[in-house]
Each structure stands twice: as C-alpha cells, then as structure tokens.
Design a protein that fits this description.
- The chain is α/β, with parallel strands linked by helices.
- The chain contains 17 helices and 15 strands.
- The strands form 3 sheets. Strands 10, 11, 12, 13, 14 and 15 form a 6-stranded mixed β-sheet that branches. Strands 2-5-6-8-9 form a 5-stranded mixed β-sheet, sandwiched between helices. A 4-stranded mixed β-sheet has the order 1-4-3-7.
Length: 554
C-alpha cells in the first residue's frame, strides 16, 4: 500500500509543469529536451541537487542586486547603507569587478524607480507609489490530456509591487533595455500571470505542487523592464487585467502545453549549465579530452575557446564573461575586427540558403552599408572585405554540390559539444561550417587576415587544434577515418585552403598540447584575479574592474 502511495506521488510530480517567462521565448539555439525537463521541477530539481558543488565565487550578476534592493525595500535601509551591508556579508564571495557593477546597478535601478514615481513628464509613470511584495505570483491550471490531467503552474519572480488595485512587475536586465528585442509571447505570459497570479506560500523552487494563497484581482497591470547598467526603462505592458488575459490568449492560448512536449536533443550553449549533460545521449563523453584532471569534488564548468582566450589575457575577463556583465565593444572592435565579422556573417548567410547553392564571385556586397566601419581605415577595409567575399567563392566547399552523397548536409555555425568527466568540463565548440563531402565529414574554420602569416597554424588558430582533437576522438559526425579539418584563410593576397588529417597521430598530439595549455590554469583557478597591464586599455570590462581603473590612473 505504501509503495502504491509513493508511486502515485511520483506520478503526480511528473505531471507537474512549472513555467517561467523565459520558458515561452522563441527557442532558437536552445535545446528542446532541456526545456522539457526544466519545466518539470521534480526531475530537473533532482538532477540539480545531484550536480557537483558550484564554484565559490558568486555566479549570478542579478542575485546581489536583488539582495541590495531587498534591504532597501523590505528593511527600509538607505541605499548606501544597504550596499555597505551587502558588501560586508554577501551570499557568496564576489569578484571585485562584480562588486563595482552591483553598486552601480543598484543605484541605477533606484534612480529609475524614482523617475517612474515622480517624473510627471512620462506618460508611463506609476499612478502612485506602490508597496513591495515579497512573495512570488503564480497561477495553476489543470489541463486534461490523453494520458490524464497535468497541473500547469505559471510563475513570475521579478520584483513585485501592488497597491490600490494596481500590480506591477519590475524585471531587472543586466544590460540596457533601450534596444532590447521584444518577445511578444514572453510579454503576454508575464502580463497575464501578473494579473491573475496568487501569492506563493511555499518554496517556488520545490519539486512539489506550489501552495498558493488568495488575492484580489487588480484593475491595472504594469510590467516594466529596467536596465541595470544604465537605468534605462521600458514599459512592456500597462493596461487592464482583462487586456493582459486577452493578450495571453492571442499570443499563447492553447499552444502553451505543446511547447514542452518535444524531447529533441540540440547540443549547444544550453549544455553549459545543464545538470543532465553527463548522461545526455546527444553529448559524447570523452574522458581525458582536455588533458587535465579536476579534483574529485571540483564543480563542473563549461569551457570554450572564446573563454580560454579571455582567460589567457586576464583571468578576470573570463569570469566577467561568464557572468554576462555588459561589455563596451567599441573599445575592442577595430575596423579590421568588424570587417572580419562582417565577412564571416556574409558567407554564413549564403551557406544557409535552401536548397544549398555554392557561393559565386558575384555574391559580393554592392553597397557600403553591409558593415559598420567607422574608422579612418574603413574605406580600405570595405574594399578588402568585398575582395575576401569574392575570393571565398574560389574555395567554397559547396562548389561541387552534385558530388555530395545523398543526404549530404551543410551545417553553418554548428555546435560540437563534448563532456570530459576527468576535467569535469563541458566543451562547447562552434565550428564555422560542418559539411559532408564525397569523401566524408569536414570541419572548416574560416579566418580573415591582412596577411597569411608564418608559424604554426594550430597555435595561431587554436580552433583548428580543438577541431582536430574532437575529430580524433570521434566527437564530430563521421569517424576519424573519414573526417578532416580545413582552414580557409582569406587575405589581401588571395584565399588559402589548408587541410589537417585527424589520423596523423603526431599532428593530433601537438593539437592536444595546444588545447591543454589553454585549459590547465583555468581548471584550477577559483579566484580569477585581474592581471593588469597594457591590455586593460582595450578591455571591454574595464569600466567595472578596479585593477583596470587603477591601471588607467597610473
């Protein structure tokens, strides 16, 4: 009898689906399988609980900001005092650059709230000051399916306020919200749950059905975004509760249940913090791939070459990149860098054509608006970029489409994800192009440079080294016997195409040494201290880094 009750309890929990606003966004590069599991709190929560411990440093940029605002709103602390109290006793140790950013972010949010309360020139100002609400809002909807009833819980967890028949949900965003893309489904979901949600009395992270209280339906609903970096404000919704529910039906309606029934695996960025990655059938497990061994209790991390390059220049950069702190791209983006990115994007767009068509010499930009060069060399870089696009047609891998085998594939910007349990690391690589040639699968990296340059290409372009290691480990489509890695180098003097064979044991051994050198120090680092130097002048995180600011004053 007890076993039957336990079985029934387990079944009830499996039929519980808990949805947050981010879950209804249009899924572009995300993994449908992870999303389907993430909204099932009993399964996903258990997997998270079994995950190895997390890194000691604070790994969320917004959690500290909310901690400061809680002290202001619920403990009536002045902002300066709240910041000082948080800095004296944070939830987790914070990197000095994060402390700087949080201090500025909390200040910007309070300033933005003040403007919403008092700026009479704004048409979207609050009708009157609202009272902070501590508990999350959620609503529950049982939906009957072919296999029985499923309880759908919809929850919002931003900063909540209400008073006098008005409810407001304030959503904090790390960057500016002035040019933030709008997802209409997410907005409709957020407004409707704010309008119809009850206070959550139990833990919102529980794997069991939420316990919710009662509420008075509001007459007016507001959903507001605030950009923490600059205090920018974007009012997403300001209307009646009825209008919020109507918008939900218009953009979501009965589609909501079908969004979470796909179990397709799509390896990519979602694998970075997925607690299920070690057992995912779509992610190859390759012990020792990175050539380092983590401590037995080391937290699982995600590693990519972009992270590795940042760490190589300054460990703090890698940590701030992981935190998704805003960066000033204008500092690091020269015209040469922007031109290279524009060439890359132009070629990628043509490789995405369906049906696949080989690039032709006439497939070149015809106006100067195809990229955003602004410097004194922009005219020269524009001409060079057009030349590079034209030169690519001479070595385009799609030139002999007729020779492609049946079922041949062309995969631009394709993610290759591998889990290395010895390094306790999820390796995420994004190849410029993966395609199937008559002789097998090929991973191609395309680089642009003013000159071809001398020296070891694996050292100069570590993406090649990583691709070779992945190919040798059988972690790309096909097998090492019918796979190769290519480098397409576009320069002033014309295109160069180089081929690397993963069956060459000496070459692969060298590639492994290149990869391991990028990983070794990063894997053991727990502090990610800044390494100040001349590179601080071109660091896009310098605004938040005390070491960079000291370097600038020196």
């Amino acid at each position: 009898m007890q076993n039957e009750r336990n079985s029934q309890s387990s079944t009830d929990e499996m039929r519980l689906i808990r949805i947050q606003p981010a879950n209804v966004r249009t899924l572009r590069h995300g993994c449908p399988q992870r999303l389907a599991m993430k909204v099932r709190p009993s399964t996903y929560g258990t997997a998270k609980a079994r995950r190895p411990r997390r890194d000691p440093l604070e790994d969320s940029a917004l959690s500290p900001v909310n901690a400061v605002l809680d002290l202001v709103e619920f403990h009536q602390k002045p902002l300066d005092e709240a910041i000082a109290k948080w800095r004296a006793k944070p939830r987790k140790p914070c990197h000095p650059a994060l402390v700087t950013w949080v201090t500025q972010a909390a200040t910007h949010v309070e300033q933005a709230k003040h403007r919403l309360d008092h700026d009479t020139a704004r048409g979207d100002r609050r009708p009157f000051p609202l009272t902070p609400v501590a508990r999350s809002w959620a609503r529950q909807r049982p939906i009957l399916g072919s296999d029985g009833a499923t309880m759908y819980e919809e929850i919002v967890q931003g900063r909540r306020y209400e008073s006098g028949g008005v409810r407001e949900l304030l959503l904090l965003r790390i960057g500016s919200v002035e040019k933030r893309p709008l997802d209409v489904a997410e907005r409709a979901f957020t407004a409707a749950v704010t309008a119809g949600g009850c206070p959550v009395l139990s833990s919102p992270w529980s794997g069991r059905k939420l316990v919710i209280g009662s509420y008075e339906p509001p007459a007016r609903v507001r959903v507001v975004e605030i950009g923490c970096t600059d205090g920018s404000v974007n009012v997403l919704f300001d209307d009646t509760a009825e209008a919020a529910h109507h918008q939900y039906q218009q953009h979501l309606g009965e589609q909501t249940p079908t969004r979470f029934t796909s179990y397709t695996h799509r390896p990519g960025p979602d694998c970075a913090d997925c607690p299920l990655v070690a057992g995912c059938p779509a992610v190859p497990v390759r012990p020792g791939l990175l050539g380092v061994s983590a401590a037995p209790d080391a937290p699982r991390r995600a590693w990519s070459l972009s992270l590795a390059r940042a760490y190589g220049q300054c460990p703090a950069q890698a940590h701030l990149q992981d935190l998704w702190l805003p960066r000033d791209r204008t500092i690091e983006d020269t015209d040469s860098v922007r031109r290279g990115r524009a060439v890359h994007d132009w070629i990628e767009e043509r490789h995405r054509r369906s049906p696949s068509v080989a690039c032709h010499a006439t497939d070149v930009p015809t106006t100067d608006t195809w990229w955003s060069g602004t410097g004194r060399d922009s005219a020269v870089e524009t001409r060079l970029g057009v030349q590079m696009v034209g030169d690519h047609s001479l070595v385009c891998p799609l030139r002999k489409l007729a020779d492609l085998p049946e079922g041949g594939a062309v995969l631009p910007e394709h993610y290759l994800v591998v889990y290395d349990p010895e390094a306790a690391a999820v390796v995420i690589a994004k190849a410029d192009l993966v395609y199937r040639s008559p002789s097998g699968w090929v991973v191609r990296e395309t680089k642009t440079s003013h000159a071809v340059g001398a020296g070891d290409p694996l050292t100069r372009y570590p993406q090649l080294a990583l691709a070779l290691v992945l190919a040798a480990e059988g972690a790309v489509p096909g097998s090492p016997q019918d796979c190769r890695v290519e480098l397409e180098l576009l320069s002033r003097t014309g295109p160069v195409l180089m081929t690397f064979d993963p069956r060459d044991s000496e070459l692969v051994a060298h590639a492994r040494s290149v990869v391991t050198e990028y990983v070794a120090d990063w894997r053991t680092d727990q502090e990610f201290k800044a390494r100040p130097g001349k590179h601080c002048r071109s660091c896009s995180f310098a605004s938040w880094c005390p070491s960079a600011l000291s370097q600038a004053r020196a």
